[in-house]
Amino acid sequence: MPTRRTALSLIVGTGATLALGAPAALARPAAGSRPFGRYGSPARRHDPGTLYVDAHGRGDHTDVQSAVDAASGTGRTIVIAAGVHRATVVVDAAHRDLTLIGASADARDTVLVYGNAAGTPRPDGTGTLGTSGSASVTIGAEGFTARDLTFANDWLRSDNPEYSGTQAVAVKVQGDRSAFHGCRFLGHQDTLYADSSSLAVFARQYYRDCYVEGDVDFVFGRASAVYDRCHFRGLVRPDLAAAPHGFVFAPSTAGAGSHGFLVLRSRVTSTAPDGYYKLARPWVPSSDPTARPMLTVRESRLGAGIDATAPYATMAAGHPWQEQRFAEHRNTGPGARITVPANRPQLSASEARAHTPARWLGDWRPLG
């Protein structure tokens, strides 16, 4: 069986042929190629606010963080040439309305990746990074948009058996009005952290035509997030002999928040044996003991990997899933079979009218 890094190197696209372990792992391209495709170039900018990243020096910057740091003001765009860009990236709150674009229009070709975990020691020796600190990419700005990019964390449990902190975030998103179109999120535990900047902030996020894979709680956080036409894939756990292998969603919606995770027109699959995945469990963090996690999954196909008899689990004994805000509506597939009605709360047609992207996103309409 290939290692995680080998597997990642095989799926990033034909443009990246070397393992993710090498920085900017692309062979030097032939002269005359267009690394930024239809998005112009430094010589022919479509907009004066656009910056270009290419590891081979054909852009304004050779790494993503340098381009982010240089993108002062609001409403800037950064086009990233195909390749495996191995470094952490932080988009702080000052970079409002920033857009990152993968130049090839295929998310597999442009990969932002690093390999930290919650248990990774801090460089200064003052403990470990923690879950948030493990993120390959951290986004704190409002109005952030990403298109055609892969966000990955390739840290492996098997390489680090001594670690107890195995959370390894690919991207942490905190800003309101954050949108991802045609993006991929790759990891194991805690892949996609859809969060907000504080307990008092209700950050709206929109994910359209995206792919997310992982195992334990691999889509989690307190954001008011819509996942529209997305694919969620639970990975097999060779280190476990029995079910469950993991949990797809772990919302931590604030008690005062009226909207948590909304999943619609999507699909959930798994490489694990049938019934080895739970659809969700509620996360009530110690920092917010009044959280009331909310998840609605509607009009989506749930594959055989989901435990249809008991699709939900409780993370902490004091916060049973039955006391949270979990519901479904008109799902299909073997993982959506209702065998024990008490274990699968269903919305009525009238209730479902309140569980829509328009209700979740309010006056914000993400561009398609």
From TrEMBL:
One of its GO terms (molecular function) is pectinesterase activity. GO terms for biological process: cell wall modification; pectin catabolic process. It catalyses: [(1->4)-alpha-D-galacturonosyl methyl ester](n) + n H2O = [(1->4)-alpha-D-galacturonosyl](n) + n methanol + n H(+). It comes from the Bacteria. Keywords: Aspartyl esterase, Hydrolase, Signal. Residues 53-361 form the Pectinesterase catalytic domain. It is an enzyme of class 3 (hydrolase). Pfam families: Pectinesterase. One of its GO terms (cellular component) is cell outer membrane. Its EC number is 3.1.1.11. Belongs to the pectinesterase family. This is Pectinesterase. It comes from Streptomyces parvus.
